[in-house]
Write a structure and sequence with these properties.
The chain has about 90 residues and is mainly α. It has one domain. The protein starts with 12 loop residues before the first strand and ends with a helix. The relative contact order is 0.16.
């Protein structure tokens, strides 16, 4: 996995293919979510066969706000203490 990380080794980005696998969706569904369900736009847009990159914090906040943990039985992208700081900043 070639995901960029910061000095604390936590992920900064998640690529399109990781999101598709995480949610069990197609690329068309992801585009639909971006257009109609306020899914975050990619930070780095790819062209052709390469993957776009999405900010992990933005995706984690979207998941929390849209009940994705319960709906899909997925684990949070960020450690619990990081998720709470994201939620606090969004209030």
């Amino acid at each position: 996995m070639n995901t960029l990380t910061n000095s604390n080794q936590s992920k900064l980005y998640i690529c399109t293919s990781e999101l598709l696998k995480r949610y069990g969706i197609t690329k068309c569904t992801l585009i639909n979510w971006r257009n109609n369900r306020d899914f975050p736009q990619p930070i780095v847009k790819a062209h052709g066969r390469s993957n776009s990159r999405y900010g992990v914090k933005a995706v984690a906040t979207w998941e929390e706000n849209n009940g994705m943990f319960d709906a899909l039985s997925i684990d949070p992208l960020l450690p619990t203490n990081s998720r709470f700081s994201i939620i606090a900043h969004s209030l």
